[in-house]
Amino acid sequence: MKSLDLLSKMTKRLEPKEGYARFASEYDKLEKYWDSFEKHHLKPYIEDSKNKKTLDAGAGSGRLSIRLSEAGADVTALDISPEMLAILKSKNPDIETVEGDLENMPFKDGTFDIVFSSLALVHLKKIEPFLDECYRVLKDDGKLILVNVHYRKPMILKDEKGKYTIKCYNHFPRHVRETAEELAFSVEDEIMVTEGDDVWVSQILVLKK
Hints:
This protein has about 210 residues and is of the alpha/beta class. The protein has helices at about 1-10, 15-30, 30-35, 45, 65-70, 80-90, 130-135, 175-180, and strands spanning about 10-15, 55, 75-80, 95-100, 110-120, 140-150, 155-160, 160-165, 185-195, 200-209. The protein has a seven-stranded mixed beta sheet with strand order 4-3-2-5-6-10-9, sandwiched between helices.
């Protein structure tokens, strides 16, 4: 307990906007690690996005946005971090990027056929506003492909300014699924990615409006 208290005093807990301003370039180098939370389960949904108006919510440096664009989707990448979006643009300038808040998206009702959101939910203290916004910006019968990750402990990051973490909140799978259903989504599929000891690594939900 004392070691944890000492760590918390030495390590700054940053809001995502500030944290990813510092972490953006390193984040972009860890694509294989971020992919490990999904285990290729998103591939058929990415392929199904061809010719569809698609939102990557919490796009980061474009890991999924670029794959969606290559699959023929009409992609909009939304993220709170301009530093992350700048990296995305440097890799694919044709993808539309929008700086904005996942809990207050700058889009009209019924804009998108599909919303993808991977690795972003963990940075939201409450999930209801985000799920509500996804429902709002989706067209009727549109789908939300949601990856809810589980961090056993926060990543301790370090740069020239010192050690820091980016605020994270684990959301239990049952709570996420039930909250989505309460907000009128129907659950088309649920995939649990686990490690060898059966501890859940991520929950992948396919939700339909």
